[in-house]
Each structure stands twice: as structure tokens, then as C-alpha cells.
Amino acid sequence: MSQKKSTQCLVLGSGPGGYAAAFRAADLGMQVTLVEKFETLGGVCLNVGCIPSKALLHVAEVVNEAGQHEKMGIKTSKPELEIPKVQKFKEQTVSKLTKGLDMLAKKRKVEVVHGLGHFEDKHTLAVIAQNGEKTEIQFESCIIATGSKPVHLPFLPDDPRVVNSTGALKLSITTGKMLVIGGGIIGCEMATVYNAMGMEVHVVEMTGQIMPGADLDLVKPCQKMLEKRGVTFHVNTKVESAKASKKGISVQFTGNDKLEGEQLFDLVLESVGRKPNTAGLNLDQAGVEVDARGYITVDARYLRTSQPHIYAVGDIIGDPMLAHKATAQGRIAAELVAGEKVAYDTVVIPNVAYTDPEVAWVGKTQQHCKEEGLEVEMGVFPWAANGRSLCIGRDEGCTKIITDANTGRIIGAGIVGRHAGDLIAELGLAIEMGCDIEDVALTVHAHPTLAETVGMAAEACEGTLTDLYMPKPKPKFKKNHEAISS
Ligand code: FAD
After folding, report:
1. Above pLDDT 70, what percent of the chain?
2. Is 482 helix (H, G, I), strand (E, B) or coil?
3. Which among 386, 396, 406 has a CA at the least distance from the CA of 454?
4. How many CB atoms within 10 Å of residue 359?
5. pLDDT at position 154, please?
6. Per residue in 25-42, pLDDT tens?
7. What would the 3-class secondary structure string for 354-416 be?
8. pLDDT by residue (tens digit) across 229-240?
9. Rounded-to-integer distance, Cα 145 and Cα 36, Å
10. Who lines ligand 1 at CB under 6 A?
11. Tens of pLDDT, residues 251-304
């Protein structure tokens, strides 16, 4: 027997895209039903992504910090990890947030239906609960936010010692030798965690650099620090095959002399990308189109699918696959469903690797500018000359701002260093606001802070920097000064 319901706005998937959409739609006075296949709300981000990984990265940071302060006069012994307690800390952090979402849904009177959803037609979603019960929900509008899942390399053996990011967060194996396949952000973050747990970590990356997409000058200080702590990186290296035996997972590589023959690992993490959760949704029944890679196609400004009353947001519509992008789109989709005159016209989405040091970038990278043949000016400030950075015993950071050489407008920025992920926000705002480099250079930053490096990178670009000796031709962008003096 199936239950029947109806709703104004149906949201499918409760990750950062889905819950933001559901809550915003409810705040705008709509009757909202949120469908989620798992018991807890929050999607990948809260349950098996951003939050648990950052809880573990914090543990790694504390472990790495200990013993680093002898020259400051602090002697500490090597930290001992109690893995069950680390797991508990991670789980409690997740649970606080997911319970918070339950409460927020209740307060807003968002009806939550748990079960696996699939479309029956353009206005009906069937939800199959774990006990097999079916609920048919008629909807006026729908926002699809079903997210993504890890790509699986078919030649890897089905073995508990071969895990994806979800498995890696469980910390079931924390001793011995680990292979991370894929040197992207998730791979590097997990390498940081397992290195701090005491494993011998090897990261293989098929392309010529780790964190592909970020500028190499930002990646290098992070790579160097991880190498210093014992992580080995193998770029231009491909995993060819792997098999499981009693002794471990033996893996064969190509492209790397140092990894000749079969190499044995106690744990293998595959982090080679993600793919959309569209299988089983019966999108064709709803008339919703997908692209060749399976991502739902939407119009860029209005997030509408091929059906005018069905929207899609977050990972399910493709890159960048980031929680904050999903949230921003979820809110806009909800406002559009509620009839507001808005559009998704975000200029930039920041990227952050929460390694130590963190690597963050926003807008155009130097590499992008080169590929597009753009004429640019750059301001770079090394953190070795920043007082605050030295006060915390770190000097490897760097802040870089890229401007359009003809207008002085900021078009991109990158930071490597402690809290780079927090610091990049100022430059994201600068790009969204259409700031010239002068706007940031003339903004007074508190002293002594890491944020000063943003102001100083802007001054370096302007030619007004006094904290370093940088002989530079006549400063270029002086619009405000000229306006004031004339
Ligand atoms: P998801 O979070 O994937 O949520 C989709 C939801 O839909 C899921 O709950 C799923 O169960 C549900 N669903 C799917 N199909 C159905 C169905 N048929 N019926 C019912 N429910 C369904 N991003 C960042 O910005 N910062 C980070 O630090 C970061 N760290 C990450 C670390 C890891 C290890 C991973 C794996 C990802 C990380 N991400 C990070 C990426 C981030 O988690 C995703 O970009 C984000 O969760 C996408 O949100 P979403 O709402 O599109 O989908």
C-alpha cells in the first residue's frame, strides 16, 4: 500500500544544497517536503565529507604542533593517539550538526521524508523507505540536490583495506604503509590525517602536480611541509593494477622508476574524483536532461533544468563540487521557486585545501591567465616578512593577488599558509565587489595579523609596499589619489 502526499516545493537530497534550499523556501512561506535516503540530514558534507574530515585534520594539526616548539622553550613529549576517542570526537562533531539540522527543519515545519526517491512523472516523486513502504509525493516545483559519490577504479580489489573517502574517515587501519591514489584536495587532506596518525603515506598523482587546478607556487610550500613530515608524493604516476593478499594490497605503477615492481600497502585510499548521483532517479520520467557525463544540465543563471518547474543545485550539476557552492545555489533556487526576481550570478567560488599549511585560491589562477593570454599584474607577499606568521613559528606562507594589467581590477588571488582558507574570504569579496587593487592596498589591516599579508600583496602590486625592498617602476594604478589631488 502506498501513502500519498502533496507539497508546493519538494527538495530531493538533504546535503548543503538541499537543506539550504528547503529552509529558504520554508522561510519564504512555502510548504516544503525534504526527501533524504539516509537517516541523518546533511548529505556528504556533514556526514562523510567536509565536517568529519576537518575534525580529523584538527587532530592532525594538534599532533603536528606538538614537539615543534622546542625553540620557543616548550618541551612536549610525542602525542599518543587513542583512535576510538578520535573517532568519537569526529562522530560527536558530526552529530551536533546533523541534530541541529533536524531541529531547524522542525522549527520551519519542513516535512522530512526518509527513503530513496525516484521520479514517476513530471510532478510525482515516489519514495521507498527502508522498510519497503512507498510514499507518492505530488509536487508543484522540485529542487534536485542529490549530490555525488566517489568514482571507483574497477581494477581495485573488493577488500576492506581498499577504501574511498567515506571508508578513510572511519580510521579502521592506522598503522603501516598507506597509498593514496589521487593527489587532489581530498587525497592531500587524508594524507595529512594518516601521516599524523603515524602511517607511512605515499600519494600518487597522474598529472604533473598535486592539487591540480591550483598554481604550483602555492602548492609547493604545502608539498614541502608534508614531505618534511614524511609524506612521499609521486606525480606523473599511474596505478596500473592491484591485488589483495594476506600480506596486504600489492600495487603496480607506471611512470615512476621509484615505484618499480609490485609495492605492498596496508591501506589504499582511492580519491580519484566524484560522479553524479543520478542513477535510479528516473530523470527521464520527469523529462530532466543530463549531459554526457551524467550531470543534470541547468541554465547557469536560473538553475532550471529542461523542465521549467524543476531546478537542480550542488554537485549534481557539476564543478566546482563544493559545499558552499551547493548552499549558494540552493538558496537561489528556493527564491526562484518562491517567485522572487533573483539569479545565480556569483562571480567566484573559493577553493580551499585544509592541509597544513592550507592552500586557498579564488578567481583566476596564474595558469588560467596564461592559458587565456590575459595581461596581468601581480602582487606577492612572502609570509617570512610577516610579523604574526613569525610569532607563530611559521614562515612558509605566501599571498598573491592577480589584477587585470589594464584596469587594476582584481581578478584572482591565492594564499598558502596557516588559515589561508579564512584569509581568502577578503579577496573573494574584493572580486565580487569589482575592487581595484588600490581598494585593498588602501584598506587598513590590523597589525600584527596574517590578514596584513593581503594588504601587503596589494601594496606590492601597487608599488607602495614599505615592508619589503622591491624596486618597482612607477606605480600603475593611482586613480583615487589623482582624483583627490585634482
Ligand atoms: P550532497 O552533500 O552529496 O548531498 C546529497 C544528498 O542527497 C545525500 O544526503 C544523499 O543521501 C541524498 N540522495 C541522493 N540520492 C537520493 C535519492 N534518490 N533519494 C533520496 N536522497 C538521495 N566541500 C567543501 O566545500 N569544503 C570541504 O572542506 C569539503 N571537504 C570534503 C571532504 C570529503 C572527504 C568529501 C567527500 C567531500 C568534501 N567536500 C567539501 C565536498 C562537499 O561535501 C560536497 O560538495 C557537498 O556535500 C555537495 O553538496 P550537495 O548538497 O550537492 O550534495
Report:
1. 97
2. helix
3. 386
4. 28
5. 96
6. 999 999 999 999 999 999
7. CCCCEEEEEECCHHHHHHHCCCEEEEEEEHHHCHHHHHCCCCCCEEEEEEECCCCEEEEEEEE
8. 999 999 999 999
9. 10
10. 12-18, 35-38, 43-45, 49-50, 53, 116-117, 145-148, 165, 186, 277, 281, 314-316, 321-324, 326, 354
11. 999 998 888 889 999 999 999 999 999 999 999 999 999 999 999 999 999 999
Q: Which three cell numbers stand for residue 378?
A: 601581480
Are 372 and 436 within 8 A, CB to CB? Answer: no
Q: Compute φ and ψ for 395, nearest 5 degrees.
A: -140, 15
Q: What is the largest CA-CA distance in the chain?
A: 80
447 part of the active site: yes
Cβ distance 142 to 11 under 8 Å?
yes
Nearest to 171 by CA among 231, 98, 58, 86: 86
249-254 and 238-244 beta bridge pairing: antiparallel
Residue 424, Ramachandran bin (φ over 0: left; ψ between -120 and 50: alpha; else beta): alpha
Q: What does R_g of the chain's alpha carbons equal in angstroms?
A: 24
The C-alpha atoms of residue 416 and residue 402 are separated, in whole angstroms, by 15
Q: Determine the Cα–Cα distance for residues 151 and 154; give it in Å rounded to an integer.
A: 9
Q: Which of 24, 146, 298 to mutate for ligand 1's pocket (most ligand atoms within 8 Å of CB)?
A: 146
Q: What is the mean pLDDT of residues 206-235?
A: 97
> From the DSSP assignment, how many helices (H) and strands (E) are in the chain?
15, 22
pLDDT tens column, 141-160: 999 999 999 999 999 999 99
How many angstroms separate the CA atoms of 414 and 427, rounded?
9
Residue 357: closest CA among 383, 376, 333 = 383
Q: Compute CA distances 469 → 390, 440, 466, 472, whole Å.
A: 19, 20, 7, 9
Find cell 574517515 and name the residue: 169
Mutate to test the pocket of ligand 1, among 24, 45, 285, 424 (most ligand atoms within 8 A of CB): 45
For residues 34 and 167, the answer to whether their CB atoms sit within 8 Å is no
Collapsed DSSP state (helix, strand, coil) of residue 62: helix
Instruction: Tell me if residue 38 falls in helix, strand or coil.
Output: coil
Distance between first and last Cα of the chain:
80
